[in-house]
Every structure is written in C-alpha cells, then in structure tokens.
Amino acid sequence: MRIVIPGGSGQVGRMLAQFFQERGHHVTVLTRGPYTAPWQTVHWDGKHMGPWIETLEGADVCIHLSGKSVNCRYTAKNRRELWDSRIGPTRLLNEVIAGLADPPRVWLNASTATIYRHAASGTEFDRPMDEAKGEIGDVELISARRRAPWKWNWTIRLVKDWEAAFFDAPTPRTRKIALRTSLVFSPAPGNIFAVLSNLVRFGLGGTQGNGRQYVSWMHEADYARAIEFLIEHEELDGPVNLASPEPLPNREFMAALRDAWDVPNGLPAPAPLIRLGSLFLRTEPELVLKSRRVIPGKLLNAGFRFEFPEWPEAAEDLVRRWRERQ
C-alpha cells in the first residue's frame, strides 16, 4: 500500500511510519521540516496547497496527525494555535482529497477521547464510554453540584470543531475514520510513559488527585495494529475509540506502574499540588485530573484482539523494553 501521513513527524507518526515501512508498504510523511528517515518525507506547511498534493494522488491511505501538543498552558495564544493546527490542515485535506482524480480509499484523522465527558468515579457519572453510548461532553461537571474548570469545556469544543471540520465536507470516494485516541504509551524519551516513569523512579509516583479518576490508555503495539485493522476493515467508519478495553482508576494505574519498576512506594500528589505544579511546568492539570473511561466498542465488536488489554502486563512490557533500550 501507499500510505501518506500528514503531520507524521511526531512520536506517534514516526512509530506508525516505521510500523508500516517494516511491513513492506511505501510510506510518505508530510512534514514542515523534512528529516532523514527510511521512509519518504515531503514538505508541507498544513496551510497551503503545493507539490505535496501529488503524494496523495493514487495513495491507498491517508493518516492525518497534525496538531500542536496539548501539553501547554491554555493561554489565548496557545488556544488559537491548538485550534488552527487541527482545524486548518483538516479543512485543507478535505479540499484536496475531494478534488483528486484517484483519492485515498480511507482517511484516518486524529481526534481524542477527551471529547467524552468527565467520567467521575464514585458518582452517578461513573460509567464506560463507547462510540454508541458514550456521552459527548458539553458542560463538564466534577460532581453533580460542581462544574469543571472552563478550560475542560474549551477542549471539548475544540474536539467537536475538529471532528466537524473532518466529517462535514463530503469525500464520496474516501472512507473516513476519526481516531478518538487515549494516552498512547511507548518506551521512548518524551512519551507520557517516560514522564510518569521518571516520577515513579524518583519516589513521586503516588496517587494523583483523589485517585478515582479513570485513566484510558493504549500500548503502542496495539495502537499500530488497530490502525492496520481499521484500514483493512472497510465496514468501519466514523468515530472509533483507540483505547485499551480495561481503563482503570489512577490509584490502581500508578500502583501497577510502580510494581513494574519495582518501586514499592510513591508520594501522592493532591489536586491542589497538581494545579500548582502545572503552572511551573507550563501545562494544564486537566491532563491528569480529568476522568476518561473510554471503551473501544467498535474495535471489539469487529473482532480486534488486544495484545495488551490490561495495564499491569502492558506496564511490565514497557519497562522491560525501556531497560533494553537503555
């Protein structure tokens, strides 16, 4: 197959490029800064048409991953960049793909599981969210009596706009899938796994917040295999959750990660401390405190089998591979 990955120069994009390249497919990554790699890289800016369009003509698959990292403070400037870096390239690709003589047969566009409402453990809001019955967030609530910070609502509106930009423009000859992705864990520097592992190894990997908030996660091997599965199964389209079938509360999640690193204890981080720390780290506490209990209903119903369905085994594998790389 010919696979084109716009915005594929980040960690997930490089992982997918390597995965498909090793399986004999021709991979092209569209990137603002071309780099040396075993696969083809072509310049694009995500804003204007150009010679990069030729890579999509006759391609089999488009996997669009553009978007500024959400690991930042949601200032007015960053909110504009987060919006522009997602909606702009998606609208551009819609225009380009609709006009191709031989467009890709399937287009997978990045999205996020953050679109679902806060699934607060221990309250009436606590239930898993799949594609069919999951509740899209509107006015986020911490509890029945307390609203979530306004920034939680803003991120949901961002994802809604992103998926609307993707689905609202017709591409009759191209099947569309929005990848509602949870946290993807990889034993690589800079990944969320590295961040949490460093906390654990320095004795700071205890419960975060009240520990009842759910963590939705996915091992990188299952993520790549799920993308391949979605490409092959032509009956699947629309939003698809990319997450392990076994999300778990933060308290259990961090305990399993400590076990994998053979670290018996970790200092807890109460919510006020997380909010304070996020100011110094120039990020948002939502990334840790929002409860995400996402279930991959479409993948499971279509017969996808997870290699790592449960976090303790996934954590052990990731730690082992991290140590081998070191």
What would your notes on this structure say?
The chain is α/β, with parallel strands linked by helices. It is built from eleven helices and 13 strands. Strands 3-2-1-4-5-8-12 form a seven-stranded parallel β-sheet, with helices on both faces. Strands 6-7 form a two-stranded antiparallel sheet.
Q: Which residues sit in consecutive blocks of at least 5 with pLDDT less than 50?
A: none
CATH topology: Rossmann fold
User: Tell me, what is the CATH class?
Assistant: Alpha Beta
Return the domain count: 1
Shape: globular
Number of helices: 11
Helix content: 25-40%
Strand content: 15-25%
The appropriate CATH architecture is 3-Layer(aba) Sandwich
The CATH superfamily is NAD(P)-binding Rossmann-like Domain
Mean pLDDT: 92
Spatial ordering of strands, largest sheet: 3-2-1-4-5-8-12
- Major sheet: 7 strands, parallel
Could you give the distance between the termini? 34 Å
Structural class: alpha/beta
Give a count of the beta strands, DSSP E runs of length 2 or more: 13
Spell out the blueprint of helices and strands:
Elements: E1 2-6, H1 11-22, E2 26-31, E3 40-43, H2 53-56, E4 61-64, H3 76-98, E5 106-112, E6 141-143, E7 146-147, H4 150-167, E8 175-181, E9 183-185, H5 192-201, E10 214-215, E11 217-219, H6 220-232, E12 238-242, E13 248-249, H7 250-261, H8 271-281, H9 286-289, H10 297-301, H11 311-325
Parallel strand pairs: 1-2, 1-4, 2-3, 4-5, 5-8, 8-12, 9-11
Antiparallel strand pairs: 6-7, 10-13
